[in-house]
């Protein structure tokens, strides 16, 4: 009988201990874990934001590096930059677009802190090829602005020997590059 009482007491103490643990101690642990998860998530969001800002700063510094001239005599600041002309002809040739003309426009705007150089371009291509060319120009590291474009879609020029194909159109457009001039201190 004594053994039975000890056994019941041990079971009662163990049961009360388990009841205390599951009613009082255990609910605190998931709350603590949830709070720590929320803190980790907030810190991860801050880390991701910092990484995005850092990558954008890299893009901005690249953009400045490719568009900053030391002085007005720098080749980048010249109205008809040979490097830019080669870049544009390379883009046009990579797309297998017919280049009719690519001429620097001599009316470049110049101020003490920047130089804007314009280029008149005439190409013959399809709508899709023209859109892809504009997309490539937009992805350039140079600051380039599309000033205007016109499309010649005359039916009389299609199909004759030596003329353009039926789905090809003549696009005349003007783009401008912007070159920043470093200010001497």
**CATH topology title of the largest domain:** Alpha-Beta Plaits
Number of structurally distinct domains: 2
The percent range for strand residues is 25-35%
CATH architecture of the largest domain: 2-Layer Sandwich
CATH H-level homologous superfamily name of the largest domain: Ribosomal protein S6/Translation elongation factor EF1B
Share of residues in helices: 40-55%
Measured on Cα atoms, how large is the radius of gyration?
35 Å
Overall shape? elongated
**Contiguous helical run count:** 4
Given as residue ranges, the uncertain stretches (5+ residues, pLDDT < 50) are none
- CATH class of the largest domain, anyone? Alpha Beta
Quick one: biggest sheet? Answer: 5 strands, mixed
Which class best fits the helix and strand makeup?
A: alpha+beta
Q: What is the number of beta strands?
A: 5
Mean pLDDT across residues:
80
Order of helices and strands: HHEHEEHEE
